Amino acid sequence: MAIFPFILLKSERLKSDPEMINHETIHLRQQLELLILPFYLLYLFNYLINLFKYRNHHQAYRNIIFEKEAYHHDTNLNYLKNGNWYGWIRSI
């Protein structure tokens, strides 16, 4: 979980998982793009809309616009280095 400016992990072994770290780092950048607080408000609002739409927690979570960007690019360890600011907008 990314709560600016920290990444919180369930276990020590996740520190060595580059895809997990990249995924959470993408969330940190998303938070910066939206000046932190609006990110959390939009994240929650999008989750609630999705929960109403899909009636399933997992589907609602996976379809949050911010999660779509992070999951789509978490294996690309150069994604953040190549710019790609506001990439989550493409998921709207």
Question: What can you tell me about this protein's structure?
Answer:
The mean pLDDT is 96. 53% of the residues lie in helices and 4% in strands. By secondary structure, it is mostly helical. It has a two-stranded antiparallel ribbon with strand order 1-2. It has one domain. Keywords: Membrane, Transmembrane, Transmembrane helix. This is DUF4157 domain-containing protein.
Runs in which pLDDT lies below 50 for 5 or more consecutive residues are none
Cα distance, first to last residue? 22 Å
Rg, rounded, reads 13 Å
**Per the principal axes of the C-alpha atoms, what is the gross shape?**
globular
How many strands?
A: 2
What are the secondary-structure elements, in order, as H or E? EEHHHH
Q: Can you summarize the main beta sheet?
A: 2 strands, antiparallel
Mean pLDDT: 96
* Global structural class: mainly alpha
Number of domains: 1
Number of helices: 4
Please list the strands of the largest sheet in the order they lie side by side. Answer: 1-2
Binned strand content: under 5%
Percent of residues in helices comes to: 40-55%
